[in-house]
Amino acid sequence: MTLDTRTLGTDSALTVSALGLGCMGMSEFYGTADEGEAIGTIHRALDLGVTFLDTADMYGPFTNEELVGRAIATGRAASGYGRDAVRIATKFGNERLPDGTRVGINGRPEYVRAACDASLARLGVEVIDLYYQHRVDKTVPIEETVGAMAELVAAGKVRHLGLSEASAATIRRAHATHPITALQTEYSLFTRDIEDEILPTIRELGIGLVPYSPLGRGLLTGTITESGGAAGDGDYRRSAYFPRFQGEALAANLALVDNVRAIADEKGVTPGQVALAWVLAQGPDVVPIPGTKRTRYLEENVAAAAVQLTADDLVALEKAVPRDAVAGERYGDMSHIDA
Question: Are 327 and 256 spatial neighbours (Cβ–Cβ below 8 Å)?
Fold first, then answer.
């Protein structure tokens, strides 16, 4: 199938594939890494028209950007993809050391410039298509951070700017400093709080939405069970950092997944496909980036773009997963979220 494209932003518009690919789990957090399989998945994504790749300097740390860069380079050599056929999004701000130690959130202008140069080198490209501040540094005025990011645009190192997990007030201040093309934040049938204030704000300002974890970190795929399933040993989702995967909360959430499964069965698709189709149906300015390191899950996700949901389907899904029915906070420690 051929994926449609969607446009993020109005003042500084970026056209991307309607679905992106989150590459984080290829290097860290989701069990054992397999670079060969990961690069094969990226190549398959490009073949299917998924040309919007999402990474960050902290993933690995640092190694995920290198992996994405190698995948693009080898895919271009093998299949003739030009650099302009791929849209690369990466992020700075969650500072880590090479051994994985977390230093903290850093939005200082000098760090922004150094982080960008390092990401360009690891990716092996001359320009980053979409550069996000990964988390807001509450000790640095957003105008200073975005001002430094704007300098990168002027220097030709970055094409478009983004924020991740930012509040409505911060988004307004940032956008007044330089046009923001996209906000990346968590959004799915399991996480809908952005509908109250953030989504109306970005639509007022003409900023696109890039939902991460559109499948509830895999819960909505129906492959996770109370005994493990797809989230087995070595998977960070089993840590206390993710309360929705713990004990009674997990049992309650899996019951909600069963509700989604019933609707999916009626349509002859998987729970994950109907959940992803719901996110896609939230507007033409929404470009989800489901993450996977396996080709078979990639292909399942891409097929979700062809799932047609009626108005009745959308109502049924929202009844199947009421906003206040999801058990547990999405993170155990929410102090890193800009409020």
Answer: no
Task: Out of 30, 59, 81, 212, pick the active-site residue.
Answer: 59
Measure CA of the first residue to CA of the last residue in the chain; give whole Å.
40
Q: Are 125 and 96 in contact (CB under 8 A)?
A: no
Contact 290, 22 (CB under 8 A): yes
Mean pLDDT, to the nearest integer, of 100-108? 96
The set of residues, in sequence order, having a beta carbon less than 8 Å from that of 98 and lying 6+ positions away, is 61, 62
Q: Is 59 a catalytic residue?
A: yes
Q: Are 101 and 131 in contact (CB under 8 A)?
A: no
d(CA 83, CA 87): 8
Token pair 């030709």: residue: 156
CB-count burial class (<10 Å; 0-12, 13-18, 19+) for 294:
middle
The per-residue b/e assignment along 116-154, b for 16 or more CB within 10 angstroms, e otherwise, is beebbebbebebbbbbbbbbbbeebebeebbebbbbbbe
Taking only the tens place, the pLDDT of each residue in 257-286 is 999 999 999 999 999 999 999 999 999 999
Model's pTM, two decimal places?
Answer: 0.95
